[in-house]
Amino acid sequence: xxxxxSELVQKLVxxxxxxxxxxxxxxxxxxRHSAEVDDGAAEKETLPxxxxxxxxxxxxxxxxLVFSALQICLxxxxxxxxxxxxxLSGAKTRSQAGTRARPRPGARPGPRPDxxxxxxFEPSQTCPGRLGEVWSLSDSxxxxxxxALFVLSELPSLCSPEGSVSVLPTVLYLLLGVLRELVHRPxxxxxxxxxxxxxxCLRSFRAVxxxxxxxxxxxxxxxxxxxQSALSSVxxxxxxxxxxxxLDRSSLLTALSxxxxxxxxxCSVSLCRLSLDKFICAIDSKDPQVQTVQLWxxxxxxxxxxVLRLRRNGSGSGGSExxxxxxxxxxxxxxxxxxxxxxxxxxxxxxxxxL
Length: 355
Description:
The protein is mainly α. The chain has two domains: 7-91 and 107-284, no CATH class; 299-354. 53% of the residues lie in helices and 2% in strands. It contains eleven helices and two strands; from the N terminus they run αααααβααβαααα. The protein has a two-stranded antiparallel ribbon with strand order 1-2. The model is unreliable at 92-129, 292-335 and 348-355 (pLDDT under 50).
């Protein structure tokens, strides 16, 4: 149905899928809550195994709601934004480059939906793979893409911990692909892009990063590895050597702040250092749109609070002994770590105002 040209039909299909996903999500949530109350699982700090994938993580085509929803979202996104597909954008895949993806240990390999081989699939009527395609989308197209992003962000919550690990790589890949299209703007275009679609993409990132599955014992390690890879991909989006492409740094900084606020435990030392560099460059920038982090006026009280937090958390290169109390006019010794924490605190207020 989503391969038809009628925008009304596509909208109805996405709306129905959204309702089905929300209803299924509520059903799974009620089952988990009932099991916690009846079996006392709430005291075990682990959720009962409910949702698709069960203990193996496999999603069976034709029987899996998550797999079918993923197919529909893929069709919509690749139809509207062909560049997110490696085949349509001309980018080399791992198989074309002579390498193969390394499977997750103990994972059961499952089929992946290949849209180009599915009957009835046709990319967007505009030139596939053309940079800046997102700026040519109509309001109804942006609404369809936003609905697909919402469904994508909710799919891990329909799965068991093992099932969420199976679907998470595809979800992150598609979200990063849409984000890449939104932040890489052709130089000749003056408009900042569809603001509503940018907000939808960032909301979807927030929903995935704050998913309870990232804190489950069975899936925590795999989620951390995948989210670290996603954070590295976000940082790589800053690398733009094409003079014909402008970079939307404000949206990238907002996405980066979501990783720091929602999944700070997955940030390694090197990733935190690279993230901090991006925020410091934003503070020094003269562009008001790039200054996405607003520092609070009561800086002396914030500095003192952050020093205490550093001591309590035991962070910093020299341990708690390397820190010292800072007065209103003093400069802390571990200024980079303090700036990092300050940015995380202050970006929360900006982030909530933006979204």
